[in-house]
Amino acid sequence: MKPAVVLAGLAGLAGAAWLVIHIGLHSVWDAVTAIGWRGLALLCLYGAANFCLLGTAWFVLDPPYGWSKFTIFAWGRAVRDSAGEILPFSQIGGLVIGARAVVLRGIGQPVAFATTVVDMAMEMAAQIAFIAAGLALLAIDLPGAGWQSPVVRSTAIGLVIAIPIACGFLVLQRKGFALLERAAKRLLPAWAAGAAAVSAALNEIHNAPRRMFASFCLHIAGWLAGAFGTWFALLLLGSRIDFADAFAIEAVLAALRSGAFFVPAAIGVQEAGYALLMPLFGLPPQLGIAVSLLKRAREIALGVPILAAWQIAEGKSALLVARDLKASTSAQAEPRG
User: Taking the chain, what is the end-to-end CA distance rounded to the nearest angstrom?
Assistant: First the structure.
């Protein structure tokens, strides 16, 4: 793990702790414990359903379709998000681990890598649309007032920057891997077959725009589900707000988390964002911290058993590889009669 990532995670953790103590540990604890175990169970049920929804957005990129393949991609998405939120990695690390999880369940490596790249692009495009709609709602609900917040202004600037980046990423998928394939043939012949397989899988997906559009629409639904999660958490805490307000809050939070992608699990960034945004809608900052901590509790409750199961699968795979290698070595060592 790179020292910069470790330092970013520690800094974020220290920032989150300072925020909790500064706002009032007792107030935050009261807000978190107010929902009880049943409330936390409902949030976990919502989280599991969201894994299935986002897994479907990944699944539609790789026909033929079937129930068993759907469960593989839903499981891979659960591992991806759990790794990104719990392990001390950035979001990129979660993507790699999620792709590895579906490979362990029988998806070919080129397809796993290609669909992960396209799925990430569709999620990014859906996020941009989601953030833009959230800022529009913010301008309607809080004309003038919301835009005084430096967080909101920064989000708007970031959105303008993100649009050409997303477009460039889509172009790079088609052109960049073809260039990589040609370079591999010249410089690294051993990698040429793998690069060619990934490039072919990417071209197949891009030549089926309906699949990409279906993935984009499902990711839009996923971002809306994230707004619902914020609205539902506030409802469990006894604070009812309009869904449009929860939409605007979650849109700005999505932008903040994306901007801090190098911070593992956006520790500190998420807490600060909620604390700064809640007062715009007449809610106390400690309630925003409580919502963030509820989400952390849900992620841990779901993510720990998911990652434990993934580690068991990795261990079984390693044992099978070691057994096959041993058998191959023994066969080669036997004297020929």
Answer: 51
